[in-house]
Write a structure and sequence with these properties.
The complex is a heterodimer of chains A (about 80) and B (about 450).
Chain A (H helix, E strand, L loop, with lengths): L1 H5 L1 E4 L2 E4 H21 L6 H20 L5 E5 L1
Chain B lengths: L2 H22 L6 H14 L4 H17 L2 H7 L8 H12 L3 H30 L3 H22 L3 H25 L10 H8 L1 H10 L2 H7 L6 E5 L10 H4 L2 H16 L5 H13 L5 H31 L5 H4 L3 H4 L11 H4 L2 H37 L2 H40 L4 H18 L1
Helix pairs in contact in B: 1-3, 1-19, 2-3, 3-15, 3-19, 4-6, 4-19, 5-6, 5-15, 6-13, 6-15, 6-19, 7-8, 7-21, 8-20, 8-21, 9-20, 9-21, 10-20, 13-15, 14-15
Classes of the chains: A alpha+beta (about 80), B mainly alpha (about 450).
């Protein structure tokens, strides 16, 4: 358990693990840009598909990565 | 106005309130990154301008108001604007007053709206005759704003010393993009630079990770512990005039009034300055924290509303941090809007008033209710299910996408460069407000100092 904790780093006021962070970044960037480039090339569609891609990446990351925060029940 | 437009406005306001209440509750979800692209999409779909403005007003109110939840319950900032509030909200949380904190912040937001909507409409009308003068001097005002925010910030000297070099970096990149043909001449890349500054500290940390020694030093044994009370007592819809003391109502109303008048200054800089100014006069730490969060939220709402309404109604050019940032597409969204024909020209005064009342009204009521009633479930969900990695991934990929759209592949490197520099400056004590004002005044500044 302890070894795992040592891999945590703090970015932007919260903890992340480097491996998970790299995973999330790669997933989100790939889904976002594939959405953008695969969309029909007219008017707002590339942006819309790009946003959908970003949200998809976010959801996938949420499913495969566990938050590092520790939750305590206060009385 | 036809009945169909009327129905569309209600749907737009409700949709924005629901969506941005969800997005806003996620820590780190910045308004510019989340509101600007969706507004652009709506404009390009050809919806009625008045419906889009309703959506926009509702979105900014909802996403700011719901900030109350992550700040008060988990002590996590919900975006750049709410960072200064966290420290004060933590004081209340330690005393077991998270529920009070949420209510105070949410009520502060309502006061901010109640004050800034009429003031902005009024001020906009007063400014219409002198609009051309303001447009001519706008860039100088941005520069004065940068100096002013630097002077009133905690780290004066470094903030002042930053102004010229950072302006040079911004304008240098813009000129480069014109030169290599990625961006049309005279078009200032702004949205992605704005986001680069916002995400600066995170980009800097990511860069540090690439250095082996730094990486080793950054690893921590610490575990972020977030405590939540079993139950946060909240019943029904409280009357916000009872939640706030007379002093809090007075201070936050005055703060909102001042914030609306100086709409041209950065909301982030103002929030820090006025918040600390008003709270600094109170001795008791709990009362001080309560006044600080209330005033800061009221100000955040007020500067947002005035920052979008006044330039839209009176000027027709984006001449405020909000109009340049999240609201930019209301002025500039080729091929629908450009600086010669945009929402300023498309809407009548009546349209502006209706869109504002619907947007602000519906979002205020809906989000206030959600914040007060479901704050605990929202926080539990975020704490347990949403990893910080996913938030960083989402935010960074959005920034990179918008960077690519703004200026091509080279702008991705540009945004990273600005992010690293902004991150270092931020760490050295230059606050976001100053950096944003430099971004806005850069074109004028560089044209003058050559």
């Amino acid at each position: 358990m302890k070894e795992k904790e040592e891999n945590n780093i703090e970015i932007w006021d919260d903890l992340v693990e480097i491996k998970d962070l790299v995973k999330a970044l790669i997933i989100c960037i790939i889904t976002t840009f594939s959405g953008y480039f695969m969309a029909p090339k007219d008017s707002y569609k590339p942006l819309l598909f790009g946003l959908f891609g970003a949200i998809t990446g976010f959801i996938v990351s949420c499913i495969i990565i566990k938050p590092k925060r520790k939750f305590i029940q206060e009385k | 106005m036809g009945i169909s437009v009327f129905i569309q406005m209600i749907i737009a306001a409700t949709a924005a309130a629901v969506v941005y209440t969800l997005i806003g509750a996620t820590p780190g979800a910045d308004e510019t990154a989340t509101i600007a692209p969706i507004t652009l999409i709506l404009i390009l779909t050809g919806l009625e301008p008045v419906v889009i403005l309703t959506f926009f007003m509702s979105a900014i109110v909802a996403s700011k108001l719901i900030d109350a939840v992550p700040i008060s319950v988990a002590g996590i900032p919900a975006g750049v604007m709410s960072t200064p509030m966290v420290e004060h909200a933590q004081v209340l949380k330690k005393e077991g007053l998270a529920d009070v904190s949420i209510r105070k912040i949410a009520s502060g937001a309502i006061i901010g709206n109640l004050v800034s909507v009429p003031i902005s409409l009024l001020l906009a009308n007063v400014l219409v005759p002198v609009a051309n003068v303001i447009k001519d001097y706008g860039n100088i005002v941005f520069f004065i704003g940068a100096i002013l925010l630097a002077l009133i910030s905690k780290h004066r000297l470094i903030s002042l010393a930053t102004i010229l070099p950072f302006a040079l970096l911004i304008q240098g990149l813009r000129t480069l993009y014109w030169e290599i043909g990625n961006v049309k001449p005279e078009t200032n890349v702004t949205t992605s630079f704005f986001l680069a500054i916002t995400i600066g500290p995170a980009i800097l940390s990511l860069f540090e990770l690439l250095n082996k020694e730094k990486r080793r030093a950054m690893k921590t044994h610490q575990i972020k512990e977030i405590g939540l009370k079993k139950e946060i007592k909240m019943e029904g819809l409280p009357n916000h005039f009872k939640i706030l003391t007379k002093k809090e109502i007075g201070y936050s109303a005055v703060a909102s009034l001042l914030g609306s008048i100086v709409f041209i200054l950065s909301p982030v800089g103002l929030t820090i300055f006025f918040g600390e100014l008003f709270a600094g006069r109170v001795k008791d730490p709990i009362k001080k924290a309560a006044i600080a969060v209330t005033c800061m939220e009221a100000l955040a709402q007020a500067t947002y509303i005035s920052g979008i309404l006044i330039p839209l109604i009176a000027l027709g050019v984006p001449l405020s941090p909000v109009a340049i940032g999240p609201g930019n597409h209301l002025f500039n969204a080729e091929p629908v809007f450009n600086l010669k024909y945009n929402m300023h020209h498309a809407l009548s005064m009546g349209d502006f008033i209706e869109a504002t009342i619907f947007g602000v009204g519906i979002a205020s009521i809906f989000t206030y209710f959600i914040a007060v009633k479901y704050s605990r479930s929202i926080c539990m969900f975020v704490i347990k299910k949403v990893p910080h990695e996913a938030i960083l991934g989402l935010f960074l990929s959005l920034v990179l996408l918008l960077a690519y759209i703004d200026g091509g592949l080279v702008n991705i490197a540009g945004v990273i460069l600005i992010g690293v520099v902004a991150g270092v400056l931020h760490r050295l004590g230059v606050n976001y407000g100053v950096l944003f004002m430099i971004l806005y005044s850069a074109p004028w500044l560089v044209s003058v100092i050559k």
